[in-house]
What we know:
Bound molecules: uridine-5'-diphosphate
Helix content: 25-40%
Distance between the termini: 25 Å
CATH class of the domain at 3-179 and 215-240 and 273-292: Alpha Beta
Strand content: 15-25%
Amino acid sequence: MPRILITGAAGFLGSHLCDRFIKEGYDVIGMDNLITGDMRNIEHLMQLPNFEFHHHDVSKYVHVAGELDEILHFASPASPIDYLKIPIQTLKVGSLGTHNLLGLAKDKKARILVASTSEVYGDPMVHPQTEEYWGNVNPVGPRGVYDEAKRFQEAITMAYHTYHGVETRIIRIFNTYGPRMRLNDGRALPAFIGQALRGEDLTVFGDGSQTRSFCYVDDLVEGIYRLLKSDYAGPVNIGNPIEITIKEFAEEIIKLTGTSQKIVYKDLPKDDPKQRQPDITLARKLLGWEPKVNRAEGLRITYDYFKSLPEEELYKEAHGRSFPRAI
Ligand code: UDP
């Protein structure tokens, strides 16, 4: 059985990756410090003989006994509210955490895939964004702690590839949604659905003309799997190229949920990117990958998930959902 380490295992993407690699017949080690992760996302895996969980902060030295074939580094706060609340941890997990995991990959002769982001493009001046575009990032703005940590992550990953011959992969993830997102992490989709479920108006920031392109989580996981198995070390965009304004997106959620609430407009946060759309030509060519799940279907599944959560979830703060009892 191949053996894989997945960091951020109790998070939204990490937990879906654990499911996928268990399904592929792997021995999976999940690692998480549970600052933003939630044990409930992986509770169903805890009794499996081929899954183990390590409660650990990867910005400290990472020890894993035995052999390792692959590493997926997905530990990081990933919503603007999180970076504002925990900026130093955000910087550390992208920089020190990545350094530790690259060292582990080198030591174990394991292949490593790191989760980068469309945020490396900042507020982009090129549209749609291709991998060749270097970005327009404000290093000292509110998003700088995330964006610059991820840009450093890409740089150190390429350095380990070039200087140490480590087998590295870099995915640039665009906005992704699906079950197990945190209802109160401040992101547009859970924010709108949470507001609809609580009977509140939907808060659109700015005039809502800014765009995003939303990818369903299963499509993203398939892209990650294919990239890991490829032999390409450069960054690859994975995301859904269908672009929508945030106002239209809020209107879709109003329709989906049947809420009688309306849209209210709030100030646009500083450095909020005006547009974002992945150019996925490279992923199509290299991996034969493109998204399959349309937004109506993906949003329906996600809404059903949020509706199934206990009512008190609706009123929780961004943090504080962790269940450390399983450790
Ligand atoms: N947004 C909004 N209302 C909210 C939350 C977010 O209008 O309650 C906007 C946000 O300003 C951004 C877009 O929706 O323009 C997507 O935000 P999200 O946090 O989901 O992702 P990111 O900005 O990191 O792409």
